[in-house]
Write a structure and sequence with these properties.
Elements lengths: L1 E2 L4 H12 L4 E5 L18 E5 L17 E4 L8 H4 L1 H21 L5 E7 L23 H20 L2 E7 L1 E3 L7 H11 L3 E4 L6 E2 L1 E3 H18 L3 E6 L5 E2 H11 L6 E4 L21 H4 L9 H17 L1
Parallel strand pairs: 1-2, 1-4, 2-3, 4-5, 5-6, 6-11, 7-10, 8-13
Antiparallel strand pairs: 9-12
C-alpha cells in the first residue's frame, strides 16, 4: 500500500512498484494528489485505488487486508502552513499516522511501514552534513515537529507490537508532478511579472535538492537493505551530496524560462534572513549510510533543479 500514492512522490513510487510487478493499493483522499498521476495503472489488475482520508479512522477497517508493506507518504507537505494553522500539521501528519498504525496493529499481514519523514526534524543542525544519529533533534517548525512525533510513534509501535518501521528523512525533492515548492513558486511569479522576481529571505538559504527519480531509487534501495537487515527500526537520510542557494535557484529558473533582464528582489526575510518563521537556513544531509548499501544520486542539486524546472515547464506548455 502507498498512502498518498496519487501525490508527487507517492505516484512516482507507485510507477516503479508497478514496473517491478508488485500488487499495489493506493490510498489517497485526493486533497493534493490527482488521479492523473496514476491514470496509467487504473485498469491494471494488480492495481487498486481507494479514496480515503486517513483522519477518518473507522473507514480504515479492513483496508489493509492482504497488504504486507505500507509506504506512508500521505501528509501535508507545506512547511509554511504551520505558521498560519498548526492544527493542519497535527491532523494531517500525526493523527493520520496514528490511525494508520492502529489499522496496521489490527491487521494480520501489514507488519512493515516505510515512512516519509523530513530533514526538518533536525532543526538548525550544528553539524553539516548531518548524519542520522545527530542529536538532539530540535525542529523549529510545526511541520518538523509533527514528523518527528510520527517517527516516535512508529518506533514505539514497532517495539510494542513487534512490527517494523523504516524512517526516511527526505531533503527537498523536485521533479514532475510537484504541486508546491520553490521552483513552482518562481515560475508562477515570473508568469505574472517577467520583469522582477520576489525571493523570500535574503537569498543565502543553502539547502540540498534531490530529483524525484533519484529519490525513488533511494527509497527502494533503503527498503531492500532494511528488510534484509532484520532490524526492527532504522533511519536513512535521503538527499543530494551538495547544497545550493535560493538565489542560484532563481537564476536557474530565469534562465530555463528564457527571460532576460529580470530584477531579483529579496524580501530580507525574518530571523537572520530566513524565508519565513521555521525555515531552516542551511540544510545538508549526510547520505553516507545510504551510499554504503548501494545507492548514489545521479544528479547534483543544481542538475536536479535544472531538470525539474524543464519538466515543470514542459508540463505547463502541454
Amino acid at each position: 500500500m502507498v498512502t498518498g500514492g496519487a501525490g508527487f512522490i507517492g505516484s512516482h513510487l507507485v510507477d516503479r512498484l508497478m514496473l517491478e510487478g508488485c500488487k499495489v493499493t493506493v490510498l489517497d483522499n485526493l486533497s493534493s494528489g490527482s488521479l492523473k498521476n496514476i491514470r496509467s495503472h487504473l485498469k491494471n489488475p494488480n492495481f487498486k485505488f481507494v479514496k480515503l482520508d486517513l483522519k477518518e479512522k473507522r473507514k480504515l477497517n479492513g483496508k489493509l487486508n492482504e497488504v504486507d508493506c505500507v509506504f506512508h507518504f500521505a501528509a501535508n507537505p507545506e512547511v509554511r502552513v504551520g505558521e498560519v494553522d498548526p492544527l493542519i500539521h497535527f491532523n494531517e501528519n500525526l493523527v493520520a499516522t496514528f490511525n494508520l498504525l492502529e489499522a496496521m496493529r489490527k491487521s494480520e499481514t501489514a507488519r512493515t511501514i516505510v515512512f516519509a519523514s523530513t530533514s526538518t526534524v533536525y532543526g538548525e543542525a550544528s553539524k553539516l552534513p548531518t548524519p542520522e544519529d545527530y542529536a538532539p533533534t530540535i525542529p523549529i517548525s510545526t511541520y518538523g515537529a509533527s514528523k518527528l512525533s510520527c517517527e516516535a510513534l512508529i518506533s514505539s509501535y514497532a517495539h510494542t507490537f513487534r512490527s517494523r518501521g523504516l524512517i526516511l528523512r527526505l531533503a527537498n525533492i523536485v521533479g514532475s508532478r510537484a504541486m508546491h515548492g520553490v521552483i513552482l513558486d518562481f515560475i508562477e511569479k515570473l508568469k505574472r511579472d517577467a520583469g522582477k522576481l520576489e525571493i523570500l529571505g535574503d537569498g543565502s538559504q543553502n539547502k540540498s535538492y534531490l530529483h524525484i527519480q533519484d529519490c525513488v531509487d533511494a527509497i527502494l534501495c533503503a527498503t531492500k537493505a532494511f528488510l534484509e537487515s532484520g532490524k526492527r527500526v532504522d533511519v536513512y537520510n535521503v538527499g543530494s551530496i551538495d547544497q545550493i542557494t535560493v538565489a542560484r535557484i532563481a537564476e536557474i529558473v530565469v534562465k530555463e524560462m528564457g527571460i532576460q533582464n529580470v530584477k531579483l528582489f529579496f524580501t530580507g526575510g525574518v530571523d537572520g534572513g530566513r524565508g519565513w518563521p521555521g525555515d531552516v537556513k542551511s540544510m545538508h544531509l549526510s547520505v553516507e549510510k545510504l551510499m554504503k548499501v548501494g545507492w548514489r544520486p545521479s544528479h547534483s542539486s543544481e542538475a536536479a533543479l535544472t531538470l525539474a524546472t524543464r519538466e515543470m515547464l514542459r508540463k505547463a506548455v502541454s
